[in-house]
Design the sequence.
């Protein structure tokens, strides 16, 4: 599920591999924040933040599913950190165009694709309105240039306009299940400077 500066919104077993190795990107953010690659010991805090944001709307998918998506492509998953606190995160993984994760189950396979799906982006409630969601989007876009040519997401919770400002366009031909909530919209957009990385295959 794709998120926004206000919190969640873009939705975005066994570890999968994307078929490509990338160097994780770190970035310092004003105000004592930094963006860094998601680490194994971050999962409890990431899962707690996800539940805090999505559970009230019935969209929380649980730690096991989150971990399966993160492990499918560690180089495109990041956390927003301040001190010992995880204040936000973004999970993205290779997926074929017009397809998206099933929120009711963990990933059961991995894909090799030039298409990246931004499954989830969340910023904590008390840090909303500071442009941090947009900064996470830009950070992911920089990482996506290393082999991807398009990014997709599912905008939930009324965040379609936020994603449109970042160059994503809706494709209402893609049908979404009820698990993504009412008025969810599949969206996609090109990666500026991105490049294809070979044919899509299932792993």
Sequence:
């Amino acid at each position: 599920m794709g998120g926004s500066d206000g919190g969640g919104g873009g939705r975005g077993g066994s570890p999968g591999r994307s078929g490509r190795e990338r160097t994780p990107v770190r970035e310092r953010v004003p105000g004592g924040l930094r963006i860094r690659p998601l680490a194994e010991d971050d999962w409890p805090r990431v899962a707690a933040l996800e539940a805090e944001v999505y559970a009230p709307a019935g969209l929380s998918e649980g730690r096991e599913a989150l971990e399966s998506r993160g492990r499918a492509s560690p180089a495109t998953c990041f956390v927003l950190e301040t001190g010992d606190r995880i204040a936000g995160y973004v999970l993205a993984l290779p997926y074929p165009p017009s397809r998206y994760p099933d929120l009711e189950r963990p990933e059961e396979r991995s894909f090799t694709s030039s298409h990246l799906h931004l499954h989830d982006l969340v910023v904590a409630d008390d840090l909303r309105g500071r442009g941090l969601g947009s900064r996470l989007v830009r950070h992911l876009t920089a990482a996506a240039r290393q082999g991807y040519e398009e990014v997709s997401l599912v905008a939930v919770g009324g965040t379609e306009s936020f994603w449109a400002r970042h160059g994503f366009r809706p494709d209402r031909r893609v049908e979404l299940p009820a698990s993504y909530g009412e008025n969810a919209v599949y969206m996609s957009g090109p990666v500026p400077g991105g490049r294809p990385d070979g044919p899509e295959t299932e792993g």
Observations:
- Confidence is low (pLDDT under 50) at residues 12-24, 196-203.
